[in-house]
Amino acid sequence: MGKKANRNQAQALVEFAIALPILILLVAGVLELGRGYSYAVATSDAARDGARAAAGKTATTNGPGIPAMCDVIKADLVAVSSSVSCATQVAHAPPFVAGTDYSAPAGGQVVVVVYCGASANCTGSVSTLTQSEVDVSVYYGFNDLNLLGGLVTISGSSKTTTSW
Question: Which residues pair with 153 in a beta bridge?
Fold first, then answer.
């Protein structure tokens, strides 16, 4: 009985050694997916708040403009990144094209792109701004997880466009 028990224990140990790297990769992947979802929520909130701020106009007041909108977005993303490039203004409605309309963000960077409809800087005359379209896109690039000494790198990006 002793030899058979030792053989069973050795077999279990070998099976565990084979399965362990796969389990570690699965757990790391799940953690990274959770982190990616967190980034998606943060960029979505920032884009929505930025569009709301830029469109913060009534029939008698102008919107606060792009600098104020950028301050709102930076405050929303302070926990995600301190490197926020804000804002690239484009002359057409989305979709915005990386490399043409804006520079794609590297890992840990945020790029904000805005279209202000008929307004320049989202603060034009009141009559121009009422019923005007404002589109804010927030792009966040992440490159956080290096597994197996850098042999496996999990990277990605989060993009959100909000229209107001």
Answer: 146
- List all residues 6 or more positions away from 83 whose beta carbon is below 8 Å from its beta carbon: 108, 109, 110
Residue 98 is given by DSSP the state B
68 token code pair: 């104020």
In the chain, which ranges are E strands? 83-89, 109-115, 135-147, 152-163
Instruction: Work out how many domains the chain is built from and give that number.
Output: 1
Q: By the 8 A CB rule, do 141 and 40 touch? A: no
- Separation between Cα atoms, residue 32 and residue 155, nearest integer Å: 9
Q: What is the pTM of this model?
A: 0.71
Query: Which whole-number Å values give the CA distances from 56 to 76, 85, 134, in the listed order?
Result: 17, 22, 10
Q: What string of pLDDT tens digits covers the 164 residues of the chain?
A: 567 777 888 888 899 999 998 898 888 778 777 877 887 888 888 888 888 877 766 556 666 778 888 888 889 888 888 888 887 888 888 888 888 988 888 888 888 888 887 666 676 666 655 556 778 888 887 766 555 556 666 666 677 776 66
The DSSP output letter for 102 is: B
Q: How many distinct helices (H) and strands (E) make up the chain? A: 3, 4
